[in-house]
Structures are given as C-alpha cells and as structure tokens.
Amino acid sequence: MTTADAYLFIKEAKDLQKTEIKRLSDYFSYTMLSVILSKLSFLFDNNIYKTGILIIPVLSSLFIIPLCLYFFYIRYPACGILGTLFGSFGFIYLIRTSIGRVDNDMLNLFFTFLISFFILLLNTKHSKMHILYICMFSALAGLLLSLFQWWYAKIIFTILYFLAFFIFVFINKLHIKDILFSGTVFTIFSSLLSYDSIIKFFNTYITWLHIIILLIICICLVVIIKTQKIHLILQKTIKNNILRQSLYIVIFIIIMLLIFKHFYKHEYLYIISIYIQQYLNPSKEQQIVSASISELAHNSIKNTLSSIYGSPIVAICGIAFFLIFLVYNYKKLVPIMPIFIIGCISFFSSTRFLMYLSPFVGIGYGYCITKCLNFIFNFFKSKIQMKNYIKDIITYVCSFSLFFMVYPPTFLSYIPTPVVPADIYSNFLNLKDKLPLNSNIYTWWDFGYAIKDIGFRVFHAGGFPAVNIAHSFISTDQTELYNTINSYTSDNSTYVIFTRDMIYKFNSIYAIGLTGASNKLFNNQVVLLPTLCEYMGNNTMSCDGAFTINLNEGYIQNNNLSEIVILNKIIIINNNKVVREIDYKRNLGAYVEIIDENSQSFITLIFTNEEAFNSNFNQMYLLGKYDTNMYELIYNAFPSTIVFKRLIKQP
Fold first, then answer.
1. ∠ at Cα 138 (342, 127), nearest 5°?
2. CB-based contact 104:151 (threshold 8 Å)
3. Contact yes or no for 168/335 (Cβ under 8 A)
4. Residue 642 neighbours by CB distance under 10 Å
C-alpha cells in the first residue's frame, strides 16, 4: 500500500467479511470504500489487498463519464475531452490515484461531477412530464450528494452544493413551482443517509431537520425576491443583467447567513470558520503538524501550479481560459463551481485538494479551441460547406493534438513507493508470531493503521499526530515515556516500537512534541540531520558531497568553507550498541552518530543540540541505553526495527 489510510479501509473490509450483516443500515457503520472492497473481493479470490489494488484504475477513471456528459450537453465537447485528459494525466491526480493508494480519491471527482451534471439537467425544458423530470434529476443529485457524504464525509461539499443548487435554479429563472418541487426532492434525498447512522458515524452537524429548514428558508427567499417590488426596482435601476443577477445572489447568501446565525447558533458559520482556519489561515501549531504530513504541506503558487501539470505556464493559462469561459457562460457552469472552489483552496493551503483543479485546466483549453475553431468555421462558411460531423472530428483531432503537444511524458514514469518499507513490514509480520494477540503498540502514528491491520492495538489519534506521544519520544526522561504509556493503558502486553523512518521524521516529531509541551514554538530549525558518509583518508569523512567531518579536530565544514560546526562527541554504533566514542571534551557543540561504519556508505546522524541527543528516541533506539527496570529489549532488527516491552513495576 502506498498510503497509510489504505490499511484502515482494508482492516474494516476484512472485519466486514467476518461480520454477519442482518440489516442494510448496518453497512453504514463502515466506510463505503470498505464495503466496496469486501463486496468485490469475491472477484479476486477474496483477497482484500488484491481487490484494493486492482479496482483503483477502474474507479479513478469513472469521472470521465460525467465530465464528458456535462460538457457535451452544453455543447462544448472539446472541454469535456481535454478536461478528462488533463484531469486523468495531471501529475497530482496520477499521484493520488496511483497503484496501491487505496483511498477516497478514487471516486471523489466521479461523485462531484455527476452531482453537478444532474443539477445541470434541472434546466432541461420538456413539454410533457416536466415536473417528473425535474423531480427525477433533483432526486438523483440529492441521493448522490448523500452517498458522497458516506464516501468522503466532508461537510463543506454539502454546503457548497446546496448553494450551487439554489443559485443555479435562481439565475436560470426556473418557475417558482419548479423550484419548490426540485428543492424539496433534492433536500429529502440528500438527507436520506444522514438521518441516523451516517450522521452519527461521521459526527457531522447537518441533520434532516436542519436541511428541511434550510430548504424552506431558501424557497421563501427566492419567492420574496422574485415576486416582490425589490425585483421590479432593481430591474429598472440596474440595466445590466449580469450585475443584477450577481446582486440577487449576494442578497440571497447574506440573508441565508443571517438566518443561519439566528437559527443554528453559529453552527454553519462555525463549520465554515473551521475550514477557513484549517486550510486558509492555519495557526503556527497547525503548520508544524502539516509539515509532517506531505499532503497537508503548503507549497508556493509556482510549485502548486507545477503539481497540476508540470509547467506553471500551461496550468495558469488553462485556468485563465476557464475563468473567461465562466464569465460568458456562468449560468451553465454554476453546478461545477463547488469543485473549482475546493480546488482553489490549494493555493492558500495544502495540495490535498489540488486534484479537483486539474480538470479545469483542460476545460479552459477546450473552451479556447472551441472559440478558435468556431471563428475559423464562420470565416470559411461562405466558401466551404462543412457538415457538423466533420466539424466534430476536427474539434476532437485538435483537442488531442493540443494535449500531446503540452503533455510532459515524464509523469508516466512516476513509481509510487510503499508507505511501509518492505523490511519494516516484514518485521511487523515477525512480531505477529512473537507477541501476544491484541498487544498494545506504542509508536509514532504513521504506521498505526498498518499495525492494526496486522492484528495489534495502537495508540494514535486516528491518523493525526499525537502530541503526547511526540513529547514522550523527545523527552530526556525515560520515566516520562513510561508514565505517558501508563496514561493510555496498564496492560502488561504493551510494547514500544522504534522504526528507521522515525529518523527522517524526527524533526517533525520534535516540533510537535515541543509545541505540545509548552507555549514555546518550534522555529523550524533542524535538530537531526541524517546523511550518507564515507571515509576519505586523513581521518576525514565526506558526507553527501556537501560537507566534510574532521575526526581529528572535531568539526564539520561545508565544502565552500563558509561555515564550521564544532563537535562535542562522535559515537560509532553497531547493532544498537555503542562500540566506540570520541569525546572532544567540549560543553557545547553538535553530536555525530555513525551507524554501521563497516559498510561502504554509512548513515551519519548529526544532532544539533544536547536535548535532541539526550532524547528517549536517541538514547533507547540508536544508542541502546534504556532503564532495565522499566523496559526490556525483546526484538532487535537494528536499524530497521527495535522493540521494547514496557515492564510492570513491582510495588
């Protein structure tokens, strides 16, 4: 698996296989992805792992269907073609739907574009059975929104789609009767799965009662604006239709927010403020935590654009063309605006939502091609009579040609790596035979779901860094680590695991633990620098071609001779034991630890301060110094995996 969350869904799917389901509602206590994995596993010898890997290319490609349908319906087929190509082959989407990434990203674009497509169909004009069509499309859009909440459970999508729904029917001037029927059906079906188990399971704020009240408010607002004198006054005052419709929307949103503030006691405003705080204006603590999670890390605008499609220029031009498309066709594009808005969050926050933006780059280029070809067709219209299917073929050829002109083929060479390295996972499997069933594992949170999938219990906050655990690892007191473990459990079968990846994550662990320990914030300084070194003669080492370590004098010097770091100690470690130590008799300076110096290129760790050097992580894991009254070393696969048993102190 190439993402940590994959093991959560796999574990749930395996549990579901062993569970007898008596009622349909029982499925809603599991994530939808887990249910899909368990139900499709019969196609792959009931192997959940194989099922998860093989369904990724299929599910992640399904968004092509609703996206193409949407733009073919509004007669911009080039937008549909290039939107699917840019979306499918964009770098960020290839990463988030790569092989082994069993996660929600597989169907996120499919659900969102399909919901948007059914909202778009509300503007369909039918001479017969008009209300039936309106209700059918509203029901499908609402049901899909409800299913999407089961699939992904991000309440911001529900809020945005409710706004998009009512703004769409409003600016397209649907009859009040149509708005009443469609709004009622949409609201009821969007809350079918949120009435009982889904809401309780995902702990969201929307209930069926809130949604019905929201519906009544929105309908009343539309009726008031459409029927009262405000409409007539504005029509005479503001001649420009776009400005007038925009003002309607602003009034509509302001009144809704004011009513929400009165009825819901800030619930919806609170939810929106949470998203603004988390994704647009994160605190210093949130930034530190985000730095330890790659998908939450914030990039510069240039790097963000590059993640969409390699060249920032290609991405920004595509988005610019889409914005022009939006200005001239806003009535048709309102249903997909929730997707675009979510994607734009990536410019201010993490890259996790960037995949929602990549199809819009292609949509923009599709609009540009369409307008250029229409100009050419109209120019030669009097000279050449061209049939519609010929025009379509030319449009498709130009769309594919543009795609291959700007597409960077290096993206196809991307090879995802397992989230748990093979040697560490092999050690976990060995521990399954050595440790009692359901033993408690105390370790860093990254591999928590994988450890649970193997059969152990772990202490981590649902995939989010646990500050207490981080602090116990950076503490210089092994008793504090012991007491922190006791605060979670007094079970005798409790084990502390250190793994090699924690060396490279130590700076983040240190930052999170230090922030949780006091009001002092970590200033992003490096406290542990891992590097590869080799002996060069004259008792010196060359490290990564960037700097040298002088063992005789005890200092580190970078290759441009501009900076020197004084050393306190150099320690040689083999198999979790200190075999040699060079003490320079200094009170200040860095610490260098050399792991397995007998190899051609050995790992060298540079601790920049004494607190990090004396941390429980370094002393127990790397130096093998631990209190035998509190811990017992029971598994040593240094430096891959080290396991200590927490001993029960005798009274």
1. 130
2. yes
3. yes
4. 24
User: Would you call 170 helix, strand, or coil by DSSP?
Assistant: helix
Instruction: Map tokens 């941390």 to a residue.
Output: 615
Which tokens hold the place of 166? 């009512």
In sequence order, what are the residues at sequence separation of 6 or more whose Cβ sits closer than 8 angstroms to the Cβ of residue 238? 244, 247
How far apart CA 32 and CA 11 sit, in angstroms, is 13
The length of the chain, given as a count of residues: 651
CA dist., res. 492 & res. 494, Å (int) = 6
Q: How far is CA 196 from CA 158, 180, 191, 205, 263, in A?
A: 17, 25, 10, 12, 22
- List the beta bridge partners of residue 541: 535, 549
Say if residues 101 and 55 touch (Cβ distance below 8 Å). Answer: no
What pLDDT, on the 0 to 100 scale, is given for residue 406?
79
Contact residues for 143 (Cβ-Cβ < 8 A; gap 6+): 189, 190, 192
Nearest Cα residue to 574 out of 600, 542, 601, 599: 599
Which residue, among 202, 115, 222, has the nearest Cα to 161 in the 3D structure? 115
Cis status of the peptide bond prior to 639, with omega within 30 of 0:
yes
pLDDT computed for residue 270 by the predictor: 47
Residue 443: other Cβ atoms inside 10 A? 22
All residues at 6 or more sequence positions from 22 whose CB lies less than 8 Å from its CB, including other chains: none
Residue 607 belongs to what H/E stretch? strand 602-607
Supply the pTM of this predicted model. 0.81
> Cα 583 to chain center, whole Å?
46
Spell out the alpha helix ranges (H) of 267-413.
Answer: 267-275, 284-291, 301-309, 312-328, 330-333, 337-344, 358-379, 388-406
Alpha helices in 407-441 (DSSP H): 422-434
Please determine, for residue 298, whether its predicted confidence score (pLDDT) is greater than 60.
no
Q: Other C-beta atoms within 10 Å of 250: how many?
A: 10
User: E strands within 487-588?
Assistant: 494-499, 528-537, 540-543, 547-550, 555-558, 564-574, 577-583
Mean pLDDT for all residues in the chain: 81
Does residue 590 sit in helix, strand or coil? Answer: strand
pLDDT digits (tens, 9 = 90+) for 87-111: 988 888 888 898 889 999 999 999 9
What is residue 130's DSSP assignment?
H
User: How far is it, in rounded angstroms, from Cα 168 to Cα 334?
Assistant: 6
- Rounded CA-CA distance 293/508 in Å is 9
